Amino acid sequence: MNRKGIVAILVVAAMLVTAVVVVVSTQPSHTSSKGTIIDAYDRQVNITSTPKKIISVAPDITELVYALGAGQDLVGVTDYCDYPHDVVSRVENGTLKSIGGFYTPSAERIVNMTPDLVFVSAGVSSHRALVTQLEALDIKVIGLYDEVNISRVYDNIKLMGKVLDKQAQADQLVNDLSSTLSKIDAKVSAQTVKLRVMYVVWLSPLSVVGNGTSLNEMIQLAGGWNAFGNMQGWASPSLETLLTNDPDVILFSVMGGSQWDAEQLISDLSKDPIWNGTKAFQEGKVYMLKSQAANCFSRGGVRMTEAVQLLAEILYPQAFSAPSIPHSIGDEYRDYLTPLNALNTSALTVEVAGSVREVRG
Amino acid sequence: MMILILGSISLLVLFTLYLTIGQYQLGFTDALSALAGYFGHLGSPADQLNGPEKVVGLIRLPRALAVIGVGIALSVAGAIMQAMIRNPLVDPYITGVSSGAALGATTVMISGITLMGLSAFAVPLAAFAGALLAFFFTMSLAEGSGGRSLNYVLAGIIVGTALSSIVNLMISIFPQDVHGVLFWLFGNFNSINWTQTALILIPALIVSVIALLYARELNVILLGHEQAYQLGVDSRKFRQWMMILSSVLTAVAVAFVGIIGFLGLIVPHIARIVVGGDHRLLLPASMIIGANVLLAADIVARTATTSELPVGAIISLIGAPFFGYLLIRRGKEYAG
């Protein structure tokens, strides 16, 4: 047999093997049964018993688990999970372990914790590969929806409630959140003038939230108008556009590290003629969100309503009997959330004198 | 020959080390017994395995084999390219394959396309398709302009630059996805499973074996176009065929794990220093050395810090000074 023949056989063999491997690995092997859940990746997952050891691969998932009252069932979280405070103290005393970063969870560590269930987010592209890996390891995984808007947040609450057998708590949580939003809406819809809001995520290049983001929806739910709603996604407007769109209120969000000193930044920018020409700087309505205040905006999830309320109070203080909100808001942001008609607006765990008291569940 | 024996031994050592070290604490004997346990349970469903067996058999074993597969693929591709371009300073990405793969992967990651039942393969498939597409453009451009080695290099630069700039544009228009994209671009073996390992290792081995069958011609081509022709090698057709082989190897390597730079560049050089330029020895030596180097680098990537480092960055970090050293020592020999 000459060389060309050998090569031809080898090439065909390679292609055949590849095709066989692909076909074999994509065979759906589940049959539908009573405990079958369809997750955000459209996978059928069989939950035969209530998961008691849960791993969360995203900070907003951790918060959701706590909100449904299953916080004590968590065994693993990411390095970035820091809310509620119980998470931080449990990581410190070792009862809660880290599985690595947000984009780089370690499958080995997950196996080490022998979880009953792992929650990932369909909004993070690297989690899809993790799902395949964990399936091969025979670890149950549920993908939650990418929270692009509030209705997806509700979907996730209900999905998790179904999975963890906490449907009553889930329905209650959805009710609480939507009733909070209605109360906020009642107060802000009476406003005749919608204020134009600019939410800055990065300074160089200047990046703001545009249309199609969850933050855009939050601005609207707070009764505001996104000054850059004509741009898509995380947009980078030019300084000309900044002047044209002329926001009434500007929010700077510090994600992660505290590389911006609030007062310093605001005073630096106010010396810039273009920034200073905006209505927001002229009227002093410039705010900087840090740590947990920024997180409740950027993570969304169950704290979406807190973010909406905080923003509404910044925009229309006259409609809420709120204390005057400082220009730099951090972990103490909850102090500024006034009770809306004295009904329980948040179903999250509430810290009372350092201990954790679960409001629901 | 010595290098092959030594290399195989060190490969075995590294392989065992690889199975032992990791985030999940295992002793040396535990790892071996877990491996035996895994093979003992082959064929039964995964819930029969205990923790160490899962980690060793389902995470580390496929990953080690995938690393070896990529190491072989990139080293052979690099050796072929260096012979074809007759310049030892080229790497397998010179035909723009890496930019094409990046474009495919970025497109899928940003647009969130899933292919119904094949969603797990969406990114690798797009990366593979992008890689081959880029090579197709390069080859058309190069053949259309004369088909000489220089044409391939220039065409590769054109295609590579064009596709890279599209990737950059996409990243700046959709910055919210930038994290996932960047991590893929750096190259990592984070989420390898058995399916991917099979899809990497089998094609890599088969195509490398095919390349080995042409080792004699690779030697001849180094003598130049006329000499090669007199010795019975149609250099134009041969070049096309070798370029295809090299690009397929590179595409397979890049599709699942991202872009791991420098390996295809420095490994053939190390091999050349050890066994000389005869491709019948150079290709196998490159395979062994490439597997060793990447395995060692991935051990570092997995264990240096608590979070995983991208292995491509680690190789570049080590490769750059080493290559600088090589350049100073041997650079004068490659004039013009």
Give the name of the CATH architecture of the largest domain in chain A. 3-Layer(aba) Sandwich
Q: Span from first to last CA of chain B?
A: 32 Å
Mean pLDDT of chain A: 84
Q: Any idea what the shape of chain A is?
A: globular
**Helix/strand order of chain A, N-terminal first:** HEEEHEHEHEHEHHEEHEEHEHHHEHHEEE
Enter the CATH topology name of chain B.
ABC transporter involved in vitamin B12 uptake, BtuC
Do you know the CATH architecture of chain B?
Orthogonal Bundle
Low-confidence stretches of chain B: none
Q: What structural class should be given to the helix and strand makeup of chain A?
A: alpha/beta
SSE arrangement:
The complex is a heterodimer of chains A (361) and B (336).
Chain A: H1 3-25, E1 36-38, E2 44-46, E3 54-56, H2 59-67, E4 74-77, H3 85-93, E5 97-98, H4 107-112, E6 117-121, H5 125-136, E7 141-144, H6 150-163, H7 167-188, E8 196-202, E9 207-209, H8 214-221, E10 225-226, E11 234-235, H9 239-245, E12 249-253, H10 262-270, H11 273-276, H12 279-282, E13 286-289, H13 291-298, H14 304-315, E14 328-329, E15 350-352, E16 355-357
Parallel strand pairs in A: 3-4, 3-6, 4-5, 6-7, 8-10, 8-12, 12-13, 13-14
Antiparallel strand pairs in A: 1-2, 8-9, 9-11, 15-16
Helix pairs in contact in A: 6-7, 7-14
Chain B: H1 2-20, H2 28-40, H3 51-84, H4 97-111, H5 122-144, H6 149-173, H7 178-186, H8 194-213, H9 215-221, H10 225-230, H11 235-257, H12 263-275, H13 279-303, H14 311-330
Helix pairs in contact in B: 1-2, 1-3, 1-13, 2-3, 3-8, 3-11, 3-12, 3-13, 4-5, 4-6, 4-7, 4-11, 5-6, 5-11, 8-11, 12-13
Give a description of the structure:
- The complex is a heterodimer of chains A (361) and B (336).
- By secondary structure, chain A is an alpha/beta fold.
- Chain A has two domains: 36-165, Nitrogenase molybdenum iron protein domain (Rossmann fold, 3-Layer(aba) Sandwich), CATH 3.40.50.1980; 180-357, Nitrogenase molybdenum iron protein domain (Rossmann fold, 3-Layer(aba) Sandwich).
- Chain A is built from 14 helices and 16 strands.
- In chain A, strands 8, 9, 10, 11, 12, 13 and 14 form a seven-stranded mixed β-sheet that branches. Chain A has a five-stranded parallel β-sheet with strand order 5-4-3-6-7, sandwiched between helices.
- In chain A, helix 6 (150-163) runs antiparallel to helix 7 (167-188) and helix 7 (167-188) packs parallel to helix 14.
- The longest helix of chain A is centred in the N-terminal third of the chain and has 23 residues, at 3-25.
- Chain A is globular, with a radius of gyration of 24 Å.
- Chain B is mainly α and 336 residues long.
- Chain B has a single domain, classed as ABC transporter involved in vitamin B12 uptake, BtuC (Orthogonal Bundle), CATH 1.10.3470.
- Helix content of chain B is 75%, strand content 0%.
- Chain B has helices at 2-20, 28-40, 51-84, 97-111, 122-144, 149-173, 178-186, 194-213, 215-221, 225-230, 235-257, 263-275, 279-303, 311-330.
- In chain B, helix 3 (51-84) packs parallel to helix 8 (194-213) and helix 3 packs antiparallel against helix 11 (235-257).
- The longest helix of chain B is centred in the first third of the chain and has 34 residues, at 51-84.
- At the A-B interface, helix 1, helix 4 and helix 5 of A face helix 3, helix 7 and helix 8 of B.
